[in-house]
Backbone:
């Protein structure tokens, strides 16, 4: 392996000194993503990259990837760094490729209904660009403000618009990808963006940055609807709010978005923003179409909400909720850390799913809230989060929640989403025998495992020695289960917000 100083000089020769960082502070910023990891994780992984590189072109990305053959340093692609399970965090240091300088719209073709963007553009910036031109994205990932186009595609994300617009994968015409050998691949022919011929796009959707670095995406766009209207209701329980979402699916209605959030979420919000809605189990539904269609849909949604005793919120409150729809985790400021569990469950089991999430949270004596949204007519995303303070000795045990929630999702005929650094043990549960074929795809694209090696398929440690080089994925599952058991044994409940405790006693 070349020395780090030599590797640094080669990186600087490629990008210039202003786009390569190696200071302790900058490396620290990239040593975690949105999830909180206890300090003890540093014993297992080298979470700090050796260098951070900020390319501006596909060719520069290709040059960085080729340099890795000389330096033998691992490569970690990173977008907004808002993932939940360490996918964009190094496990053995190496070169972090931060894509956020590649944030331009390359081409917009209104007649062909397509837009080509660099992978580091955020969804919100892209949404704003299209809206100004009278167009919209069929699907906008839930975290549109922080998440980049490349990051959400690699995470297999879903979000706003999905019940009508379908999967985010279907919204991709084709991708430009730098493969691990430094060559550049277009995943489908431009003349055949519908993919009647070979279309490799789905291979990269949800690949968590293990098969190459996406540098550009050509996405389908739709015309902006004449009207989009959000309506919200407070329900007597979260299960009732969830039944309301299921009833929407069972009716002929196809909303733009439909989501629920538990009362606890609004207690956290209230602690931070006194003008937030009165804490309640709230569902919000957005419908779109012509003015008349929207009025019809709103009446139908009102009827369904009334059946579950939902009380309609004032338009000003609903409008504020809708405006803030991309900002879900302010509660993190109460505790300094937060862990989210992302699962897909059958729509028909949504009320059971939200109750299960509350039960698990309470058993583990955690503070947290439950959120869920419709993905399509069969599937809902169940996204509870819990607060944690990773500077407290017991902080890291909150990660046991993610393990228990994943187990529960599998029992409900669903599954957890996202593998990253520490949920790799779910891969086999999700894919069964297909797991070995997924591993074979990695070998074909990246035989030296230099891009995000030792993640999603196996759990590398920072140690190069045989026997210590990797942790068997079931070993990680056992570790997180022990965390859950310790959490349960903790004599006291977390108390990040006192009002939360009062709420529980009511
Ligand atoms: C408020 C909020 C809501 C969220 N809601 C959802 C949700 O509903 N569904 C969901 O799936 N996730 C959700 N997330 C998690 C996360 O935001 C998404 O997964 C997001 O799309 C990740 O985008 P990012 O740009 O931050 O990617 P990062 O976190 O930087 O990276 C994610 C993965 O993609 C890889 N990667 C990033 N860019 C590239 C690239 N250009 N080429 C190759 N690989 C790349 C990384 O190596 C990593 O494995 C949410 C997060 C927040 C904070």
Residues:
């Amino acid at each position: 392996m070349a020395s780090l100083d030599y590797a640094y000089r080669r990186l600087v020769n490629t990008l210039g000194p202003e786009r390569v960082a190696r200071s302790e502070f900058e490396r620290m910023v990239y040593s975690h993503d949105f999830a909180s990891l206890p300090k003890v994780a540093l014993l297992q992984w080298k979470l700090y990259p050796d260098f951070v590189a900020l390319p501006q072109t596909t060719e520069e990305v290709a040059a960085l990837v080729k340099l890795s053959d000389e330096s033998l340093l691992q490569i970690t692609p990173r977008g907004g760094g808002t993932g939940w399970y360490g996918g964009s965090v190094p496990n053995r240091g190496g070169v972090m490729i931060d894509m956020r300088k590649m944030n331009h719209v390359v081409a917009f073709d209104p007649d062909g209904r397509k837009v080509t963007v660099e992978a580091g553009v955020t969804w919100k910036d892209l949404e704003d660009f299209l809206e100004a031109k009278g167009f919209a994205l069929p699907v906008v990932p839930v975290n549109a403000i922080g998440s980049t186009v490349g990051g959400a595609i690699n995470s297999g994300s879903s979000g706003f618009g999905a019940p009508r617009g379908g999967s985010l994968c279907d919204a991709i015409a084709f991708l430009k990808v730098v493969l691990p050998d430094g060559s550049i691949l277009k995943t489908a022919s431009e003349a055949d963006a519908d993919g009647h011929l070979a279309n490799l796009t789905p291979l990269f959707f949800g690949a968590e940055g293990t098969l190459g670095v996406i540098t550009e995406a050509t996405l389908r766009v739709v015309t902006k609807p004449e009207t989009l209207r959000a309506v919200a209701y407070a329900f007597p329980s979260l299960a009732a709010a969830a039944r309301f979402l299921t009833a929407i699916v069972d009716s002929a209605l196809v909303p733009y978005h439909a989501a629920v959030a538990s009362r606890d979420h609004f207690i956290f919000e209230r602690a931070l923003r006194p003008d937030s809605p009165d804490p309640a189990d709230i569902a919000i539904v957005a419908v779109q179409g012509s003015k008349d269609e929207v009025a019809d849909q709103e009446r139908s949604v009102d009827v369904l909400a009334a059946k579950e005793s939902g009380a309609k919120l004032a338009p000003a409150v609903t409008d504020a909720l809708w405006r803030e729809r991309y900002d879900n985790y302010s509660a993190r400021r109460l505790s300094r850390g937060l862990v989210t569990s992302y699962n897909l469950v059958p729509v028909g089991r949504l009320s059971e799913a939200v109750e299960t999430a509350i039960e698990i949270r309470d058993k583990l004596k955690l503070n947290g809230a439950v959120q869920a949204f419709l993905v399509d007519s069969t599937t809902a995303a169940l996204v509870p989060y819990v607060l944690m303070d990773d500077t407290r000795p017991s902080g890291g045990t909150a990660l046991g929640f993610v393990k228990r929630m994943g187990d529960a999702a599998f029992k409900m005929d669903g599954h957890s989403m996202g593998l990253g650094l520490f949920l790799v043990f779910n891969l086999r549960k999700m894919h069964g025998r297909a797991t070995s074929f997924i591993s074979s795809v990695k070998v074909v694209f990246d035989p030296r495992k230099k891009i995000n090696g030792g993640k999603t398929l196996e759990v590398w440690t920072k140690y190069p020695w045989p026997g210590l080089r990797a942790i068997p994925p079931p070993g990680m599952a056992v570790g997180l289960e022990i965390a859950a058991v310790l959490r349960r044994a903790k004599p006291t409940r977390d108390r990040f917000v006192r009002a939360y405790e009062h709420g529980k006693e009511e």
User: Anything to note?
Assistant: Residues 33-34, 76-84, 87-88, 99, 119, 141-143, 146-148, 150-152, 154-155, 157-159, 208-209, 213-214, 328-329, 342, 381, 417, 452 surround flavin-adenine dinucleotide (CB under 6 Å). The first strand starts at residue 20 and ends at 21.
